[in-house]
């Protein structure tokens, strides 16, 4: 089996990739800032910080492929841009491992600064000497769940959401499986995007959340005058939707039902 390195290995997506790779019998390397991360037995841990490139030289030596999951919305220049440059430099010094990058659907149609940074990362990878594959996906279930929790107001029993928003939630298990499939093959460049199985309004998403978790908060849909800025502008845009690539299978409702006890408890 191949030796595969995962950056962002203890993050939401990265940890799922590590688990699936380990189950499939690959030699797995987890690159993380954590000194003693919780990883499956047999996974080799390489501690470092992608923002300054520490630990990458050892982590990339002798690998067949790299699944690049490291990202941080709050430090996109340091983590995504500078971090990817450090990763490419280290990988190129050790031959030509296949670099697989997970990106976001619709970023080439948006002026949102975070999306533009992700697009710049794609360009860095394209211009490297490494064989590469880039997969763009829609919005993770976990991400949408975290947003709803942020929007909930315990004092007023309301959930304030950006009006006019539609999303296409996808499960990280299916994204991880798609990334691993790419890592097990030859580099393919830009591959077809993958999106969640359904496009839902933000109201439908929150209504399902409340029904499954037996909550009864009032949903307030607000426009730019209440929820302003480029973040919410990008959220309201349909450019992030890919209805012709709704190829995943796990629905938002199924994701929630699988986690009812944890979410309620």
Automatic annotation (TrEMBL):
Which domain of life does this protein belong to? Bacteria
Q: Which UniProt keywords apply?
A: Photosynthesis, Photosystem II
The answer to whether UniProt assigns keyword Cytoplasm to this entry is no
Task: List, for all copies, the residue spans of the domain called NmrA-like.
Answer: 2-216
Give GO cellular component annotations, separated by semicolons.
Answer: photosystem II
* Cross-referenced Pfam families: NmrA
Q: Does the keyword Transmembrane apply?
A: no
GO BP of this protein: photosynthesis
Q: What is this protein's name?
A: NAD-dependent epimerase/dehydratase family protein
Q: Which organism is it from?
A: Ktedonosporobacter rubrisoli
């Amino acid at each position: 089996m191949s030796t595969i390195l995962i950056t962002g290995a203890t993050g939401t997506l990265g940890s799922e990739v590590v688990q699936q790779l380990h189950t499939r019998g690959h030699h797995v390397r987890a690159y993380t800032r954590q000194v003693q991360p919780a990883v499956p037995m047999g996974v080799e841990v390489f501690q470092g910080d992608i923002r300054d490139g520490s630990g990458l030289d050892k982590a990339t030596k002798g690998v067949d492929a790299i699944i690049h999951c490291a990202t941080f919305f709050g430090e996109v220049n340091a983590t995504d841009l500078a971090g990817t440059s450090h990763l490419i430099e280290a990988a190129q010094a050790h031959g030509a491992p296949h670099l697989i990058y997970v990106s976001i659907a619709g970023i080439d149609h948006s002026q949102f600064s975070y999306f533009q940074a992700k697009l710049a990362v794609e360009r860095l990878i394209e211009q490297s000497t490494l064989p590469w594959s880039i997969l763009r996906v829609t919005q993770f279930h976990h991400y949408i769940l975290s947003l709803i929790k942020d929007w909930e107001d315990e004092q007023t029993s309301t959930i304030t959401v950006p009006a006019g928003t539609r999303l296409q939630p996808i499960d990280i298990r299916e994204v991880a499986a798609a990334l691993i499939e790419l890592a097990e093959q030859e580099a393919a460049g830009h591959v077809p995007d993958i999106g969640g199985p359904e496009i839902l309004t933000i109201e439908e998403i929150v209504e399902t959340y409340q029904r499954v978790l037996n909550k009864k908060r009032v949903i307030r849909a607000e426009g730019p005058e209440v929820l302003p800025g480029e973040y919410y502008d990008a959220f309201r845009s349909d450019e992030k939707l890919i209805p012709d690539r709704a190829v995943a299978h796990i629905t938002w409702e199924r994701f929630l039902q699988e986690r009812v006890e944890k979410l309620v408890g």
